[in-house]
Write a structure and sequence with these properties.
The chain is α+β, with helices and mostly antiparallel strands. It has one domain: Glutamine Phosphoribosylpyrophosphate, subunit 1, domain 1 (4-Layer Sandwich). It is about 35% helix and about 15% strand. A hairpin with a 5-residue loop joins β18 and β19. α7 runs antiparallel to α10, α14 crosses α15 and α14 packs across α17. It is globular and about 60 Å long. The two termini are about 35 Å apart.
Length: about 600
Protein backbone atom coordinates (compact mmCIF):
# COMPACT_ATOMS: atom_id res chain seq x y z
CA UNK A 1 0.00 0.00 0.00
CA UNK A 2 2.82 2.44 0.73
CA UNK A 3 4.38 2.98 -2.67
CA UNK A 4 1.06 3.19 -4.54
CA UNK A 5 -0.14 5.93 -2.18
CA UNK A 6 2.97 8.03 -2.77
CA UNK A 7 2.81 7.44 -6.53
CA UNK A 8 -0.88 8.32 -6.70
CA UNK A 9 -0.35 11.53 -4.73
CA UNK A 10 2.19 12.67 -7.28
CA UNK A 11 -0.30 12.03 -10.08
CA UNK A 12 -2.99 13.94 -8.21
CA UNK A 13 -0.63 16.85 -7.69
CA UNK A 14 0.06 17.14 -11.40
CA UNK A 15 -3.60 16.82 -12.38
CA UNK A 16 -4.65 19.35 -9.74
CA UNK A 17 -2.11 21.83 -11.05
CA UNK A 18 -3.46 21.39 -14.55
CA UNK A 19 -7.16 21.81 -13.74
CA UNK A 20 -6.96 24.46 -11.02
CA UNK A 21 -6.74 28.19 -11.45
CA UNK A 22 -4.56 30.10 -8.99
CA UNK A 23 -6.46 32.62 -6.88
CA UNK A 24 -4.49 35.46 -5.40
CA UNK A 25 -5.50 38.19 -2.99
CA UNK A 26 -6.14 41.72 -4.26
CA UNK A 27 -3.71 44.45 -3.23
CA UNK A 28 -3.98 45.60 0.37
CA UNK A 29 -6.64 48.26 0.90
CA UNK A 30 -5.48 51.81 1.48
CA UNK A 31 -6.35 53.37 4.87
CA UNK A 32 -9.23 55.42 3.42
CA UNK A 33 -10.45 52.75 1.00
CA UNK A 34 -14.06 51.59 0.94
CA UNK A 35 -14.83 47.93 1.72
CA UNK A 36 -14.48 45.68 -1.29
CA UNK A 37 -16.02 42.31 -1.97
CA UNK A 38 -13.27 39.71 -2.37
CA UNK A 39 -14.35 36.80 -4.56
CA UNK A 40 -14.21 33.29 -3.15
CA UNK A 41 -12.69 30.37 -4.98
CA UNK A 42 -12.36 26.90 -3.40
CA UNK A 43 -9.02 25.92 -4.96
CA UNK A 44 -5.85 27.77 -5.93
CA UNK A 45 -2.43 26.64 -7.11
CA UNK A 46 0.76 28.66 -7.17
CA UNK A 47 3.98 29.76 -5.54
CA UNK A 48 5.17 31.88 -2.62
CA UNK A 49 2.73 30.43 -0.10
CA UNK A 50 -0.95 29.67 0.26
CA UNK A 51 -3.86 30.35 2.61
CA UNK A 52 -7.20 28.56 2.92
CA UNK A 53 -9.99 29.67 5.23
CA UNK A 54 -13.76 29.98 5.18
CA UNK A 55 -13.62 33.70 4.37
CA UNK A 56 -12.07 35.62 1.46
CA UNK A 57 -11.18 38.73 3.49
CA UNK A 58 -9.42 36.57 6.08
CA UNK A 59 -7.48 34.60 3.46
CA UNK A 60 -6.50 37.91 1.84
CA UNK A 61 -5.14 39.14 5.18
CA UNK A 62 -2.86 36.11 5.38
CA UNK A 63 -1.73 36.53 1.78
CA UNK A 64 -0.93 40.19 2.47
CA UNK A 65 1.42 39.17 5.27
CA UNK A 66 3.06 36.48 3.11
CA UNK A 67 3.59 38.99 0.30
CA UNK A 68 5.38 41.31 2.69
CA UNK A 69 7.85 38.59 3.70
CA UNK A 70 6.09 37.11 6.71
CA UNK A 71 6.13 33.37 7.29
CA UNK A 72 3.30 30.88 7.77
CA UNK A 73 2.98 31.64 11.49
CA UNK A 74 2.73 35.38 10.89
CA UNK A 75 0.12 34.80 8.18
CA UNK A 76 -1.86 32.36 10.33
CA UNK A 77 -2.20 34.91 13.13
CA UNK A 78 -3.19 37.61 10.62
CA UNK A 79 -5.81 35.30 9.09
CA UNK A 80 -7.15 34.34 12.53
CA UNK A 81 -7.43 37.97 13.59
CA UNK A 82 -9.36 38.77 10.40
CA UNK A 83 -11.68 35.84 11.05
CA UNK A 84 -12.39 37.48 14.41
CA UNK A 85 -13.90 40.33 12.36
CA UNK A 86 -15.74 38.45 9.62
CA UNK A 87 -16.48 35.21 11.50
CA UNK A 88 -17.17 36.67 14.98
CA UNK A 89 -19.70 33.95 15.83
CA UNK A 90 -17.04 31.26 15.32
CA UNK A 91 -13.80 32.79 16.57
CA UNK A 92 -12.17 35.81 18.15
CA UNK A 93 -10.02 36.91 21.06
CA UNK A 94 -12.76 35.84 23.46
CA UNK A 95 -12.10 32.18 22.65
CA UNK A 96 -9.36 29.57 22.25
CA UNK A 97 -8.00 26.90 19.93
CA UNK A 98 -5.18 24.58 18.91
CA UNK A 99 -2.22 25.49 16.69
CA UNK A 100 -0.09 22.90 14.79
CA UNK A 101 3.11 24.08 13.10
CA UNK A 102 5.56 22.35 10.76
CA UNK A 103 9.08 23.80 10.74
CA UNK A 104 10.63 23.23 7.31
CA UNK A 105 14.19 23.88 8.49
CA UNK A 106 14.15 21.16 11.16
CA UNK A 107 11.38 19.07 9.56
CA UNK A 108 9.62 18.85 12.91
CA UNK A 109 6.04 19.42 14.09
CA UNK A 110 5.15 21.52 17.14
CA UNK A 111 1.83 22.37 18.75
CA UNK A 112 0.21 24.90 21.07
CA UNK A 113 -2.73 24.05 23.33
CA UNK A 114 -4.59 27.35 23.56
CA UNK A 115 -7.73 25.87 25.06
CA UNK A 116 -9.79 27.97 27.48
CA UNK A 117 -9.63 27.03 31.17
CA UNK A 118 -12.20 26.87 33.94
CA UNK A 119 -11.91 29.39 36.80
CA UNK A 120 -9.59 28.35 39.61
CA UNK A 121 -12.66 28.25 41.86
CA UNK A 122 -14.49 25.71 39.67
CA UNK A 123 -15.27 22.19 40.84
CA UNK A 124 -17.14 19.20 39.43
CA UNK A 125 -20.45 20.84 40.35
CA UNK A 126 -19.91 23.89 38.12
CA UNK A 127 -23.09 23.22 36.14
CA UNK A 128 -25.21 21.76 38.94
CA UNK A 129 -28.08 23.75 40.39
CA UNK A 130 -30.00 22.37 43.36
CA UNK A 131 -28.08 19.14 42.85
CA UNK A 132 -29.21 18.71 39.23
CA UNK A 133 -27.45 19.54 35.94
CA UNK A 134 -28.54 22.79 34.33
CA UNK A 135 -30.37 22.62 31.04
CA UNK A 136 -27.78 23.12 28.31
CA UNK A 137 -29.41 26.26 26.90
CA UNK A 138 -29.56 27.83 30.37
CA UNK A 139 -25.83 27.27 30.80
CA UNK A 140 -24.71 28.52 27.39
CA UNK A 141 -25.88 32.15 27.50
CA UNK A 142 -24.39 32.91 30.88
CA UNK A 143 -21.19 33.87 32.63
CA UNK A 144 -20.95 30.28 33.88
CA UNK A 145 -20.04 29.03 30.41
CA UNK A 146 -17.12 31.42 29.85
CA UNK A 147 -13.60 30.03 30.13
CA UNK A 148 -10.37 32.03 30.33
CA UNK A 149 -9.64 33.05 26.71
CA UNK A 150 -6.63 31.34 25.16
CA UNK A 151 -6.54 32.80 21.65
CA UNK A 152 -4.46 35.95 22.41
CA UNK A 153 -1.88 33.88 24.31
CA UNK A 154 -1.78 31.39 21.42
CA UNK A 155 -1.03 34.16 18.92
CA UNK A 156 1.75 35.64 21.04
CA UNK A 157 3.27 32.24 21.85
CA UNK A 158 3.32 31.23 18.17
CA UNK A 159 4.90 34.53 17.12
CA UNK A 160 7.49 34.35 19.91
CA UNK A 161 8.47 30.77 19.07
CA UNK A 162 8.36 30.69 15.27
CA UNK A 163 7.15 33.99 13.81
CA UNK A 164 9.13 36.80 12.18
CA UNK A 165 6.74 39.73 12.76
CA UNK A 166 5.42 41.57 15.79
CA UNK A 167 1.82 41.09 16.90
CA UNK A 168 1.02 44.71 16.07
CA UNK A 169 2.19 44.23 12.49
CA UNK A 170 0.13 41.12 11.77
CA UNK A 171 -2.99 42.64 13.37
CA UNK A 172 -3.01 45.54 10.90
CA UNK A 173 -5.11 43.87 8.15
CA UNK A 174 -7.74 42.79 10.69
CA UNK A 175 -7.81 46.18 12.41
CA UNK A 176 -8.32 47.85 9.02
CA UNK A 177 -11.06 45.35 8.13
CA UNK A 178 -12.90 46.00 11.42
CA UNK A 179 -12.73 49.77 10.91
CA UNK A 180 -13.77 49.93 7.24
CA UNK A 181 -16.07 46.92 7.33
CA UNK A 182 -16.82 43.88 5.22
CA UNK A 183 -19.72 42.89 2.99
CA UNK A 184 -22.45 40.88 4.72
CA UNK A 185 -23.23 37.56 3.00
CA UNK A 186 -26.03 35.03 3.39
CA UNK A 187 -24.08 32.96 5.93
CA UNK A 188 -23.42 35.92 8.23
CA UNK A 189 -27.05 37.01 8.07
CA UNK A 190 -28.43 33.50 8.68
CA UNK A 191 -26.10 32.94 11.63
CA UNK A 192 -27.21 36.26 13.08
CA UNK A 193 -30.84 35.29 12.56
CA UNK A 194 -30.39 31.96 14.34
CA UNK A 195 -29.02 33.84 17.36
CA UNK A 196 -31.33 36.85 17.25
CA UNK A 197 -33.41 35.88 20.28
CA UNK A 198 -30.51 35.45 22.67
CA UNK A 199 -28.52 38.34 21.16
CA UNK A 200 -31.43 40.56 22.22
CA UNK A 201 -30.92 39.44 25.85
CA UNK A 202 -27.70 41.47 25.91
CA UNK A 203 -27.94 45.16 24.84
CA UNK A 204 -24.27 45.41 23.81
CA UNK A 205 -24.58 42.34 21.60
CA UNK A 206 -27.82 43.60 20.05
CA UNK A 207 -26.32 47.03 19.37
CA UNK A 208 -23.33 45.49 17.58
CA UNK A 209 -24.87 42.61 15.63
CA UNK A 210 -28.42 43.90 15.14
CA UNK A 211 -27.69 47.44 13.94
CA UNK A 212 -30.76 49.65 14.18
CA UNK A 213 -32.55 46.76 15.85
CA UNK A 214 -32.61 44.70 12.65
CA UNK A 215 -30.75 41.82 11.06
CA UNK A 216 -27.86 43.02 8.86
CA UNK A 217 -28.86 43.03 5.21
CA UNK A 218 -27.01 40.90 2.67
CA UNK A 219 -24.75 43.20 0.66
CA UNK A 220 -24.55 45.83 3.39
CA UNK A 221 -21.27 46.86 5.03
CA UNK A 222 -20.71 45.64 8.59
CA UNK A 223 -18.26 47.68 10.65
CA UNK A 224 -16.92 46.98 14.13
CA UNK A 225 -15.08 50.12 15.35
CA UNK A 226 -14.92 48.79 18.92
CA UNK A 227 -12.99 45.73 17.76
CA UNK A 228 -10.72 47.94 15.64
CA UNK A 229 -9.84 49.92 18.80
CA UNK A 230 -9.34 46.65 20.73
CA UNK A 231 -6.89 45.41 18.09
CA UNK A 232 -5.10 48.76 18.25
CA UNK A 233 -4.77 48.36 22.01
CA UNK A 234 -3.38 44.83 21.62
CA UNK A 235 -0.94 46.11 18.99
CA UNK A 236 0.20 48.86 21.34
CA UNK A 237 0.26 47.04 24.68
CA UNK A 238 0.52 43.37 23.70
CA UNK A 239 -1.63 40.54 25.01
CA UNK A 240 -0.81 41.68 28.54
CA UNK A 241 -3.74 44.05 28.03
CA UNK A 242 -5.96 40.97 28.38
CA UNK A 243 -4.07 38.89 30.91
CA UNK A 244 -2.89 41.72 33.17
CA UNK A 245 -4.58 44.94 32.03
CA UNK A 246 -7.76 46.92 31.59
CA UNK A 247 -9.10 44.80 28.76
CA UNK A 248 -8.94 41.76 31.03
CA UNK A 249 -10.72 43.66 33.79
CA UNK A 250 -13.53 44.42 31.35
CA UNK A 251 -13.80 40.71 30.50
CA UNK A 252 -13.97 39.76 34.18
CA UNK A 253 -16.61 42.38 34.95
CA UNK A 254 -18.71 41.14 32.03
CA UNK A 255 -18.52 37.51 33.15
CA UNK A 256 -19.22 38.23 36.81
CA UNK A 257 -22.04 40.68 36.02
CA UNK A 258 -23.48 39.74 32.61
CA UNK A 259 -24.96 42.92 31.09
CA UNK A 260 -28.43 41.49 30.44
CA UNK A 261 -31.52 43.42 29.42
CA UNK A 262 -33.74 43.44 32.56
CA UNK A 263 -36.83 43.39 30.38
CA UNK A 264 -35.80 40.17 28.63
CA UNK A 265 -36.52 37.98 31.62
CA UNK A 266 -33.32 36.02 30.87
CA UNK A 267 -31.45 34.60 33.86
CA UNK A 268 -27.85 35.20 32.76
CA UNK A 269 -26.14 33.35 35.58
CA UNK A 270 -22.87 35.00 36.63
CA UNK A 271 -19.54 33.27 36.29
CA UNK A 272 -16.53 33.30 38.61
CA UNK A 273 -13.77 34.16 36.13
CA UNK A 274 -11.30 36.50 37.87
CA UNK A 275 -8.24 38.59 37.13
CA UNK A 276 -6.29 35.84 38.92
CA UNK A 277 -7.48 33.34 36.30
CA UNK A 278 -6.35 35.64 33.48
CA UNK A 279 -2.94 36.22 35.07
CA UNK A 280 -2.43 32.47 35.58
CA UNK A 281 -3.30 31.49 32.01
CA UNK A 282 -0.62 29.94 29.79
CA UNK A 283 -0.84 28.60 26.24
CA UNK A 284 0.93 25.23 26.38
CA UNK A 285 3.73 24.23 24.04
CA UNK A 286 3.51 20.46 23.75
CA UNK A 287 4.48 17.52 21.56
CA UNK A 288 2.05 16.49 18.82
CA UNK A 289 0.38 13.14 18.51
CA UNK A 290 1.87 10.96 15.78
CA UNK A 291 0.37 8.06 13.88
CA UNK A 292 1.93 6.10 11.04
CA UNK A 293 -0.56 5.52 8.21
CA UNK A 294 0.27 3.98 4.84
CA UNK A 295 3.93 4.88 5.40
CA UNK A 296 3.09 8.51 6.15
CA UNK A 297 3.38 10.38 9.45
CA UNK A 298 0.09 11.91 10.66
CA UNK A 299 0.62 14.65 13.26
CA UNK A 300 -2.07 16.41 15.27
CA UNK A 301 -2.92 17.89 18.66
CA UNK A 302 -2.60 15.89 21.88
CA UNK A 303 -4.96 16.13 24.88
CA UNK A 304 -6.61 18.30 26.15
CA UNK A 305 -8.10 17.83 22.68
CA UNK A 306 -9.26 14.35 21.80
CA UNK A 307 -8.74 15.08 18.12
CA UNK A 308 -5.26 13.67 17.64
CA UNK A 309 -5.86 10.49 19.66
CA UNK A 310 -9.27 9.73 18.15
CA UNK A 311 -8.38 10.40 14.51
CA UNK A 312 -5.10 8.54 15.07
CA UNK A 313 -6.76 5.50 16.65
CA UNK A 314 -9.33 5.32 13.84
CA UNK A 315 -6.57 5.49 11.21
CA UNK A 316 -4.71 2.70 12.99
CA UNK A 317 -7.91 0.61 13.00
CA UNK A 318 -8.25 1.18 9.24
CA UNK A 319 -4.56 0.48 8.52
CA UNK A 320 -5.13 -3.24 7.87
CA UNK A 321 -7.98 -2.61 5.40
CA UNK A 322 -7.27 -1.77 1.76
CA UNK A 323 -9.69 1.13 1.43
CA UNK A 324 -8.43 1.95 -2.05
CA UNK A 325 -9.90 -1.31 -3.39
CA UNK A 326 -13.02 -1.40 -1.22
CA UNK A 327 -16.42 -0.66 -2.71
CA UNK A 328 -18.02 2.63 -1.69
CA UNK A 329 -20.33 0.68 0.64
CA UNK A 330 -17.50 -1.19 2.33
CA UNK A 331 -15.37 1.94 2.55
CA UNK A 332 -18.12 3.85 4.37
CA UNK A 333 -18.96 0.82 6.53
CA UNK A 334 -15.37 0.50 7.78
CA UNK A 335 -15.03 4.27 8.20
CA UNK A 336 -18.22 4.38 10.30
CA UNK A 337 -17.23 1.42 12.47
CA UNK A 338 -13.69 2.71 13.07
CA UNK A 339 -15.18 6.04 14.12
CA UNK A 340 -17.62 4.31 16.48
CA UNK A 341 -14.83 2.37 18.21
CA UNK A 342 -12.49 5.36 18.50
CA UNK A 343 -15.26 7.50 20.03
CA UNK A 344 -16.04 4.77 22.56
CA UNK A 345 -12.43 4.96 23.76
CA UNK A 346 -12.36 8.76 23.63
CA UNK A 347 -15.30 9.05 26.00
CA UNK A 348 -13.68 6.82 28.60
CA UNK A 349 -10.05 7.89 28.50
CA UNK A 350 -9.48 11.43 27.24
CA UNK A 351 -9.53 14.59 29.35
CA UNK A 352 -7.12 17.31 30.43
CA UNK A 353 -3.80 15.51 31.10
CA UNK A 354 -2.98 18.02 33.84
CA UNK A 355 -5.82 16.43 35.81
CA UNK A 356 -6.34 13.00 34.24
CA UNK A 357 -4.08 10.03 33.55
CA UNK A 358 -4.64 9.93 29.79
CA UNK A 359 -3.08 6.87 28.07
CA UNK A 360 -2.19 8.80 24.92
CA UNK A 361 0.65 6.53 23.80
CA UNK A 362 -1.38 3.38 24.28
CA UNK A 363 -4.45 4.79 22.51
CA UNK A 364 -2.23 5.44 19.49
CA UNK A 365 -0.49 2.07 19.47
CA UNK A 366 -1.06 -0.24 16.50
CA UNK A 367 -1.30 -3.16 18.91
CA UNK A 368 -4.30 -1.60 20.61
CA UNK A 369 -5.91 -0.62 17.31
CA UNK A 370 -5.60 -4.20 16.07
CA UNK A 371 -7.26 -5.46 19.24
CA UNK A 372 -10.21 -3.18 18.52
CA UNK A 373 -10.30 -3.58 14.71
CA UNK A 374 -11.22 -7.24 15.01
CA UNK A 375 -14.63 -6.12 16.29
CA UNK A 376 -15.49 -4.95 12.77
CA UNK A 377 -17.31 -7.41 10.50
CA UNK A 378 -18.05 -6.88 6.83
CA UNK A 379 -21.69 -7.95 7.14
CA UNK A 380 -22.78 -6.66 10.56
CA UNK A 381 -22.84 -3.45 12.58
CA UNK A 382 -21.60 -2.89 16.12
CA UNK A 383 -24.18 -1.80 18.69
CA UNK A 384 -23.91 1.71 20.11
CA UNK A 385 -23.10 2.96 22.59
CA UNK A 386 -20.13 0.63 22.39
CA UNK A 387 -18.16 -0.05 25.56
CA UNK A 388 -14.53 1.11 25.62
CA UNK A 389 -11.51 -1.12 25.53
CA UNK A 390 -8.48 -0.92 27.83
CA UNK A 391 -5.50 0.51 25.92
CA UNK A 392 -3.10 -0.40 28.75
CA UNK A 393 -4.09 -4.06 28.56
CA UNK A 394 -5.26 -4.78 25.00
CA UNK A 395 -7.40 -7.88 24.59
CA UNK A 396 -8.38 -9.19 21.19
CA UNK A 397 -11.88 -7.94 20.34
CA UNK A 398 -12.20 -6.90 23.95
CA UNK A 399 -14.52 -4.33 25.49
CA UNK A 400 -15.05 -3.54 29.12
CA UNK A 401 -16.74 -1.15 31.46
CA UNK A 402 -19.67 1.10 30.67
CA UNK A 403 -20.12 3.03 27.46
CA UNK A 404 -19.82 6.80 27.74
CA UNK A 405 -22.12 8.76 25.41
CA UNK A 406 -20.56 11.59 23.41
CA UNK A 407 -21.31 14.97 24.97
CA UNK A 408 -22.58 17.81 22.80
CA UNK A 409 -20.12 20.34 21.41
CA UNK A 410 -21.07 23.48 19.50
CA UNK A 411 -20.40 23.19 15.80
CA UNK A 412 -19.40 26.68 14.71
CA UNK A 413 -15.66 26.75 15.07
CA UNK A 414 -13.39 27.82 12.17
CA UNK A 415 -10.22 26.42 10.64
CA UNK A 416 -7.40 27.91 8.59
CA UNK A 417 -4.42 26.37 6.85
CA UNK A 418 -1.29 28.23 5.69
CA UNK A 419 1.97 27.44 3.90
CA UNK A 420 4.82 29.80 3.07
CA UNK A 421 7.56 29.97 0.44
CA UNK A 422 10.08 28.31 2.79
CA UNK A 423 7.87 25.25 3.25
CA UNK A 424 6.59 26.00 6.76
CA UNK A 425 2.97 24.97 7.36
CA UNK A 426 0.31 25.88 9.94
CA UNK A 427 -2.95 24.04 10.62
CA UNK A 428 -4.95 26.07 13.15
CA UNK A 429 -8.47 25.60 14.50
CA UNK A 430 -9.94 28.32 16.71
CA UNK A 431 -13.32 28.73 18.32
CA UNK A 432 -15.69 30.43 20.74
CA UNK A 433 -17.65 27.12 20.91
CA UNK A 434 -21.14 27.20 19.42
CA UNK A 435 -22.49 29.76 16.95
CA UNK A 436 -22.31 33.09 18.77
CA UNK A 437 -20.53 31.67 21.81
CA UNK A 438 -22.12 32.78 25.06
CA UNK A 439 -23.91 35.61 23.16
CA UNK A 440 -22.29 38.06 25.60
CA UNK A 441 -20.31 40.93 24.06
CA UNK A 442 -17.75 42.71 26.23
CA UNK A 443 -19.13 46.29 26.33
CA UNK A 444 -17.15 48.67 24.16
CA UNK A 445 -14.72 45.96 23.06
CA UNK A 446 -16.40 44.49 19.99
CA UNK A 447 -16.04 40.75 20.60
CA UNK A 448 -18.12 37.87 21.96
CA UNK A 449 -17.10 35.69 24.87
CA UNK A 450 -16.87 31.92 24.52
CA UNK A 451 -19.16 29.29 26.03
CA UNK A 452 -16.35 26.73 26.01
CA UNK A 453 -16.96 25.39 29.51
CA UNK A 454 -20.15 23.72 28.31
CA UNK A 455 -17.82 21.20 26.64
CA UNK A 456 -17.35 19.70 30.11
CA UNK A 457 -19.67 16.93 31.21
CA UNK A 458 -22.30 18.56 33.42
CA UNK A 459 -22.52 15.36 35.47
CA UNK A 460 -21.11 11.82 35.09
CA UNK A 461 -22.99 9.72 32.57
CA UNK A 462 -22.66 6.86 35.02
CA UNK A 463 -21.80 7.68 38.68
CA UNK A 464 -20.04 4.32 38.97
CA UNK A 465 -17.56 5.12 36.19
CA UNK A 466 -14.93 7.86 36.33
CA UNK A 467 -15.63 10.66 33.85
CA UNK A 468 -12.37 12.32 32.73
CA UNK A 469 -14.22 15.40 31.46
CA UNK A 470 -15.83 16.80 34.59
CA UNK A 471 -15.01 20.45 35.46
CA UNK A 472 -12.16 21.30 37.81
CA UNK A 473 -10.12 24.34 38.91
CA UNK A 474 -8.11 25.64 35.94
CA UNK A 475 -9.05 22.54 33.92
CA UNK A 476 -9.35 22.52 30.14
CA UNK A 477 -12.57 20.95 28.80
CA UNK A 478 -12.12 18.13 26.33
CA UNK A 479 -12.23 19.21 22.70
CA UNK A 480 -12.61 17.45 19.35
CA UNK A 481 -10.47 19.95 17.43
CA UNK A 482 -8.14 18.07 15.07
CA UNK A 483 -5.70 20.29 13.11
CA UNK A 484 -3.57 17.80 11.18
CA UNK A 485 -0.35 17.79 9.17
CA UNK A 486 0.75 14.73 7.16
CA UNK A 487 4.44 14.19 6.33
CA UNK A 488 6.07 11.78 3.89
CA UNK A 489 8.90 9.37 4.70
CA UNK A 490 11.41 12.23 4.32
CA UNK A 491 9.37 14.36 6.76
CA UNK A 492 8.21 16.77 4.10
CA UNK A 493 4.58 17.95 4.03
CA UNK A 494 2.08 16.00 1.98
CA UNK A 495 -1.11 17.70 3.14
CA UNK A 496 -2.41 19.75 6.08
CA UNK A 497 -6.06 20.19 6.95
CA UNK A 498 -8.70 20.66 9.63
CA UNK A 499 -12.34 21.55 10.13
CA UNK A 500 -14.91 23.09 12.47
CA UNK A 501 -17.94 21.11 13.57
CA UNK A 502 -17.82 20.21 17.27
CA UNK A 503 -17.51 16.45 17.72
CA UNK A 504 -17.99 16.04 13.95
CA UNK A 505 -14.54 17.60 13.48
CA UNK A 506 -12.97 14.22 14.18
CA UNK A 507 -15.04 12.35 11.61
CA UNK A 508 -14.66 15.14 9.05
CA UNK A 509 -10.86 15.10 9.31
CA UNK A 510 -10.78 11.30 9.26
CA UNK A 511 -13.04 11.07 6.20
CA UNK A 512 -11.19 13.81 4.31
CA UNK A 513 -7.85 12.13 4.99
CA UNK A 514 -9.05 8.72 3.82
CA UNK A 515 -10.82 10.17 0.76
CA UNK A 516 -7.55 11.89 -0.18
CA UNK A 517 -4.94 9.29 0.84
CA UNK A 518 -6.87 6.07 0.17
CA UNK A 519 -9.61 6.94 -2.32
CA UNK A 520 -7.29 9.27 -4.26
CA UNK A 521 -9.65 12.21 -4.64
CA UNK A 522 -8.05 15.60 -5.35
CA UNK A 523 -7.93 17.58 -2.12
CA UNK A 524 -10.73 19.98 -3.04
CA UNK A 525 -12.96 17.03 -3.94
CA UNK A 526 -12.05 15.13 -0.77
CA UNK A 527 -13.15 18.23 1.15
CA UNK A 528 -16.36 18.52 -0.89
CA UNK A 529 -17.32 14.82 -0.66
CA UNK A 530 -20.62 14.15 1.18
CA UNK A 531 -19.97 13.27 4.79
CA UNK A 532 -21.02 10.75 7.39
CA UNK A 533 -20.44 11.12 11.12
CA UNK A 534 -20.65 8.30 13.68
CA UNK A 535 -19.79 9.21 17.29
CA UNK A 536 -20.69 6.05 19.23
CA UNK A 537 -24.39 6.74 18.82
CA UNK A 538 -27.32 4.56 17.76
CA UNK A 539 -27.55 6.44 14.47
CA UNK A 540 -24.94 7.75 12.05
CA UNK A 541 -25.48 11.25 10.69
CA UNK A 542 -25.47 11.67 6.90
CA UNK A 543 -25.43 14.74 4.73
CA UNK A 544 -28.24 14.90 2.14
CA UNK A 545 -26.17 13.61 -0.79
CA UNK A 546 -25.55 10.35 1.11
CA UNK A 547 -28.89 10.22 2.89
CA UNK A 548 -30.75 10.43 -0.43
CA UNK A 549 -28.45 8.01 -2.27
CA UNK A 550 -28.59 4.29 -2.99
CA UNK A 551 -25.60 3.85 -0.67
CA UNK A 552 -27.83 4.51 2.31
CA UNK A 553 -29.98 1.49 1.47
CA UNK A 554 -26.94 -0.73 0.99
CA UNK A 555 -25.56 0.31 4.38
CA UNK A 556 -28.94 -0.16 6.04
CA UNK A 557 -28.98 -3.70 4.67
CA UNK A 558 -25.83 -4.37 6.69
CA UNK A 559 -27.53 -2.98 9.82
CA UNK A 560 -26.69 0.74 9.90
CA UNK A 561 -29.24 3.32 11.01
CA UNK A 562 -29.09 6.93 9.88
CA UNK A 563 -30.42 10.41 10.49
CA UNK A 564 -30.08 13.49 8.34
CA UNK A 565 -27.61 16.29 9.12
CA UNK A 566 -27.87 19.17 6.61
CA UNK A 567 -24.20 20.11 6.86
CA UNK A 568 -21.16 18.56 8.55
CA UNK A 569 -17.95 20.56 8.97
CA UNK A 570 -16.27 23.17 6.76
CA UNK A 571 -12.72 22.00 6.05
CA UNK A 572 -9.71 23.74 4.54
CA UNK A 573 -6.32 22.39 3.57
CA UNK A 574 -3.06 22.88 1.71
CA UNK A 575 -1.11 20.34 -0.33
CA UNK A 576 2.57 20.48 -1.26
CA UNK A 577 3.09 19.99 -4.98
CA UNK A 578 6.39 19.48 -6.86
CA UNK A 579 8.82 22.33 -7.59
CA UNK A 580 7.81 24.60 -4.74
CA UNK A 581 4.17 24.84 -5.75
CA UNK A 582 1.27 24.80 -3.24
CA UNK A 583 -2.36 23.90 -3.67
CA UNK A 584 -4.86 25.52 -1.30
CA UNK A 585 -8.35 24.05 -1.01
CA UNK A 586 -11.56 24.93 0.80
CA UNK A 587 -15.25 24.09 0.74
CA UNK A 588 -17.17 24.47 -2.52
CA UNK A 589 -20.58 24.95 -0.85
CA UNK A 590 -20.58 24.41 2.94
CA UNK A 591 -20.75 27.58 5.04
CA UNK A 592 -21.23 29.56 1.83
CA UNK A 593 -18.03 28.16 0.33
CA UNK A 594 -14.46 28.76 1.44
CA UNK A 595 -11.58 30.83 0.12
CA UNK A 596 -8.30 29.43 -1.21
CA UNK A 597 -5.53 31.83 -2.27
CA UNK A 598 -1.87 31.76 -3.27
CA UNK A 599 0.71 34.53 -3.36
CA UNK A 600 1.68 34.00 -7.02
CA UNK A 601 -0.43 31.88 -9.42
CA UNK A 602 2.67 31.59 -11.62
CA UNK A 603 6.35 31.31 -10.80
Amino acid sequence: MRRPVARKLAVLAVSAAVVSVGATAPPAAQPDAKPRTVQKTPVAVGYGGAVASVDADASAAGIEVLRKGGNAVDAAVATAAALGVTEPYSSGIGGGGYFVYYDARTRTVHTIDGRETAPLTADSGLFLENGKPLAFNDAVSSGLSVGTPGTPATWQTALDEWGTRRLGTVLQPAERLARHGFTVDDTFRSQTASNETRFRYFPDTAKLFLPGGRLPAVGSTFKNPDLARTYEELAREGVGAIYHGDLGKDIVKTVQHPPVDPGSGWNARPGELSTRDLAAYRAKLQAPTKTSYRGLGVYSIAPSSSGGTTVGEALNILERTDLSRASETQYLHHFIEASRIAFADRGRWVGDPAFEDVPTRQLLSQRYADSRACLIQDDAVLTSPLAPGDPRHPAACGTGGTAAPTTYEGENTTHLTVADRWGNVVSYTLTIEQTGGSAITVPGRGFLLNNELTDFSFAPANPAVHDPNLPGPGKRPRSSISPTIVLDAHKRPVVALGSPGGATIITTVLQTLTEFLDRHLPLVDAIAAPRASQRNAAQTELEPALYDSALRGKLEAIGHSFKLNPEIGAATGVQRLPNGEWLAAAEKVRRGGGSAMVVHPER
